[in-house]
Design a protein that fits this description.
This protein is α/β, with parallel strands linked by helices and about 400 residues long. It has one domain: TIM Barrel, CATH 3.20.20.190. It is about 30% helix and about 15% strand. It has 16 helices and 16 strands. The protein has helices at about 15-25, 50-55, 75-85, 145-150, 165, 175-190, 205-210, 215-225, 225-230, 240-250, 270-275, 280-285, 285-295, 320-330, 360-375, 385-395, and strands at about 25-30, 35-40, 60-65, 90, 95, 100-105, 125-130, 135-140, 175, 195, 200, 235, 255-260, 300, 330-335, 375-380. The chain has a 4-stranded parallel beta sheet. A 4-stranded mixed beta sheet has the order 9-6-5-11. Strands 12-13-14-15 form a 4-stranded parallel beta sheet, with helices on one face. The longest helix is centred in the middle third of the chain and has 15 residues, at about 175-190.
């Protein structure tokens, strides 16, 4: 048993999230097949700060694209490292191929994360598109069949910051959602513990506009995999209509939870923008917006800096009201993304080394500060550091 696993034995991600949701105002009820689902209960009265700090009995460590600080993102090597390092959930972002296969890539533009530019046969497919209102140039997953995508190899997206990962360029192939599920099921059996999946559906409105909608394809996969019938599963998106669609389709027949991602506060979800709506992410994080989110989702996932922002000098400021307001609405709060390099840390936690240098102690301390602010889980590029921060919280150590 790995260090830190002993206290987790007999306490699965499902159990931990259930306890947190119970505290957040969710009622557990049975569904067909013996699973569990969570429905919004009556809003709870405001709680005191001390209660909020212990709200997440065991904050969840979400392996962001696996353990992408240590392995190229979205590869099985990255996911295996995340499991080894104690992640509760693995995050595969999902795009789609021309022939309808769900493929694990952070964006549909694969120029920066694959070696597609080195394939002369695909040179003519370099093109310009507008994706969610942003003009992009590159190669796009939806212009390739799955067989063609399988000829590509993964490369590191941040080679200057993560040269160790860049040294692995070309070693790993691209993975489908189906392969990801099978891999996770095998790893769960091997490790003897539940391993959750937290897929993100990317660019839903855009893909629907070109005749390749993601949602029903994804939902159909839930019926094909025995592991997904019992594994902890969270479905996330920056859009709203797709989450509402999935919420209605699941109809409590499956114990999946839904996570509303929050982007730049001034921006609008792509589905809202496409429909000509005015709803911004900033309004979604206000009490009225949070209550609306709680009607179809279980978890709020904003940028970490929208919860505890930075002062002009780069040090951490006081927490905003978002965590408390989200908890009051019955939502768990799990921000993104903690990264271990000095470049990404608040000034309080940098160690004076180069900006691209790893700073494990600083990352652990920064995560600890956010845990103290009351978050219920978090995305991290380095799950081992996240696990250490959670264990220190459990042991009563104060963040430094």
């Amino acid at each position: 048993m790995k260090d830190g696993d002993a206290w987790r034995a007999g306490s699965s991600p499902t159990d931990a999230m259930g306890r947190s949701m119970a505290r957040a105002g969710f009622a557990r009820r049975s569904v067909l097949g013996g699973g569990v689902a969570f429905g919004l209960a009556a809003a709870l009265p405001a709680r005191g700060e001390a209660e909020r700090r212990v709200m997440a009995e065991r904050p969840l460590v979400l392996g962001h694209r696996g353990a992408c600080a240590l392995r190229p993102e979205h590869t099985l090597a990255s996911y295996a490292k995340a499991i080894e390092d104690g992640a509760d959930y693995l995050e595969p972002d999902l795009v789609i191929s021309r022939d309808g296969a769900l493929v694990v890539r952070h964006e549909n533009n694969i120029a920066e994360t694959t070696d597609v530019a080195r394939h002369p046969a695909f040179a003519g497919r370099r093109t310009e598109k507008i994706i969610d209102g942003t003009r992009q140039v590159g190669w796009f997953a939806e212009d390739f069949t799955l067989a063609e995508l399988k000829t590509l190899r993964a490369i590191e997206r941040l080679p200057r910051i993560r040269p160790g990962n860049a040294a692995m360029d070309g070693r790993f192939g691209l993975v489908t959602w189906e392969e990801m599920v099978d891999f996770t099921a095998a790893q769960a059996r091997e490790s003897g513990r539940e391993i959750g999946l937290i897929p993100e559906l990317k660019h839903s409105t855009y893909f629907a506009s070109i005749g390749l909608p993601l949602e029903d394809r994804f939902l159909a996969s839930l019926d094909r995999h025995a592991y997904l019938a019992r594994a902890p599963l969270v479905i996330q998106s920056f859009e709203t209509a797709n989450l509402r669609h999935i919420h209605a389709k699941l109809d409590h027949r499956h114990p999946a939870r839904l996570m509303q991602l929050i982007d730049d506060p001034a921006g609008r979800p792509a589905d809202i923008a496409k429909a000509g709506g005015s709803l911004t992410y900033r309004r979604m994080m206000e009490p009225e917006g949070l209550a609306e989110i709680a009607a179809y989702a279980d978890i709020l996932s904003p940028s970490m800096r929208s919860l505890v922002p930075l002062r002009p000098d780069g040090t951490l400021d006081s927490p905003t009201a978002v965590i408390a307001d989200a908890h009051h609405a019955g939502l768990l709060v799990m921000p993104y993304t903690f990264r271990p390099e000095n470049l990404f840390l608040a000034a309080d936690f940098r160690d004076g080394g180069p900006s691209e240098a790893r700073n494990p102690a600083g990352s652990i301390a920064e995560i600890g500060a956010y845990l103290a602010a009351g978050i219920d889980g978090f995305f991290t590029d380095d799950p081992a550091l996240g696990r250490t921060a959670v264990e220190r919280l459990r042991d009563g150590a104060r963040p430094t």
